[in-house]
Specification:
With about 425 residues, the protein is of the alpha/beta class. It has 2 domains: about 220 residues, Rossmann fold, CATH 3.40.50; about 170 residues, 2-Layer Sandwich (Nucleotidyltransferase, domain 5), CATH 3.30.420. The chain contains 15 helices and 17 strands. A hairpin with a 4-residue loop joins strand 3 and strand 4. Helix 11 crosses helix 12.
Length: about 425
């Protein structure tokens, strides 16, 4: 009976057996060599704390493949002293709960020390007091929720000066990401190994009610992409749109619409890696409010492919017209559309002004609350909108989805000329 209990404990506690893919040890950094920092970016409940506790246990005991040798002095740094104790040390997935019963460390709260039977010591630090890291030295460190630290750069810098013991001092950073400079710098550091995981990756250990309620409510939103999917959501100061603006203008459904159009920004090529074909549908209500209905943009399609996609959207929404930029393809754009549906009304538009100048009136419409997005977030489209400034997208790529949106909205809001009635 005692043997069975030990075997059950071993299977449950030998983390490498049950670890999820994003919790497995990193073999290499960006530069192909050995890593100094393991950055684990994950959504809420993705198993970040469990990974941190198990990694510390492994480096203390010298357990491979997580550790190459035993660590003797470990820094444990959280947002506050309370977080270090309640989450990293005493929490449900913390160091005390995951320890082997016979090798459990002794926590002395007054000294902020964890002492293992083999002599290793963990020192608890609050990111609110970076000066406390001036002086001590370590051969390993676990930094939890770094993106929430009050002064992340000062605290992290002090740690780096102290991470100087042993042949290969290392640090694990577990955090839900935010677009702070330090996180972005670590992601691109050649000595960093990066792991990413959404909340769903650990769904087997989470409440079904949580999965249904929280993920169902926030999936696709800016907050959800950050807190659930573990993405770094950028905010650009000079962008024409902001994520807060788009979230505030989102509606569940559109009212009856007077006109619906499909905007197209055709690509110059169908080769892999080339620009996407922007295909965005929008309509306008009797009150003059524009409603963005769908983003059907796609990359890598030949002319017949993107034309079929655009016309299918036009037919499904019972749209009034297709508005297509023809700078790249000239008459070919209208011709390929009419090869699929000879009766489709196509309005050809030419780009005579820069993309930023064309987009400004559309952005102003949003600022006035006269443009809204319908349903779930249009993730890729909204990423372009919130990353589009005077110099274009930060990536340098063409804002194809945004261009299609601009053409559609511009067509809807332009003054309509009523036909004159001639009296004979």
């Amino acid at each position: 009976m005692e043997t069975d209990q030990r075997l059950t404990w071993a299977v449950d506690r030998d983390f490498i057996i049950t670890a999820l893919r994003h919790q497995l040890p990193r073999a290499q950094a960006h530069n192909g060599g050995d890593w100094t920092t393991w950055l684990m970016l994950g959504g809420r409940g993705a198993g970040k704390t469990r990974l941190g506790a198990e990694w510390v246990r492994a480096v203390v005991e010298g357990i491979g493949p997580y550790a190459q040798m035993k660590a003797r002095s470990i820094a444990l740094i959280g947002e506050t002293a309370h977080d270090v104790r309640e989450v990293m040390i005493e929490g449900p997935s913390g160091l005390l709960r995951t320890a082997h019963p016979r090798r459990r460390p002794q926590w002395t709260a007054t000294r902020r020390r964890l002492e293992w039977p083999n002599g290793a010591i963990g020192y608890a630090y609050s990111a609110e007091e970076p000066h406390q890291l001036r002086g001590p030295q370590f051969d390993a460190a676990w930094c939890d929720e770094l993106a929430k630290w009050k002064d992340p750069d000062a605290t992290f810098d002090m740690l780096q000066f102290g991470l100087r013991l042993g042949l290969r001092p290392r640090q694990l950073v577990t955090t839900t990401p935010r677009p702070i400079a330090l996180i972005k710098r670590l992601v691109t550091d050649p000595r960093t190994a990066v792991t990413r995981a959404p909340t769903q990756a650990n769904a087997v250990h989470l409440s079904p009610v949580f999965i249904e309620a929280v993920i169902g409510r926030y999936a696709g939103t800016r907050l959800g992409r950050q807190e659930i999917d573990g993405e770094i959501i950028e905010e650009r100061a000079d962008a024409l749109w902001s994520r807060a603006m788009l979230e505030a203008l989102r509606v569940g459904e559109a009212p009856p619409l007077m006109r619906v159009v499909v905007g197209i920004d055709p690509p110059g090529s169908a080769k892999p890696g080339s620009d996407a074909c922007g295909i965005v549908a929008a309509g306008i209500s009797e009150e003059g409010i524009v409603y963005v209905l769908e983003d059907a943009s796609a990359a890598g399609l030949p002319p017949h492919g993107w034309a079929s996609r655009a016309i299918a959207l036009y037919q499904r929404l019972k749209a009034d017209a297709i508005v297509a930029e023809v700078n790249m393809g000239g008459d070919m754009v209208s011709a390929v559309l009419r090869q699929i549906d000879r009766n489709v009304p196509v309005r050809s538009v030419h780009a005579t002004r820069g993309k930023y100048v064309r987009a400004e009136p559309v952005a102003a419409l949003y600022a006035q609350g006269k443009a809204r997005h319908v349903g779930r977030p249009f993730t890729a489209l909204e990423d372009e909108m919130c990353d589009f400034g005077l110099g274009g997208l930060s990536s340098g790529r063409s804002p194809d989805r945004l261009d299609a949106l601009v053409w559609a909205v511009t067509e809807l809001i332009k003054p309509r000329v009523e036909p004159r009635i001639r009296i004979l």
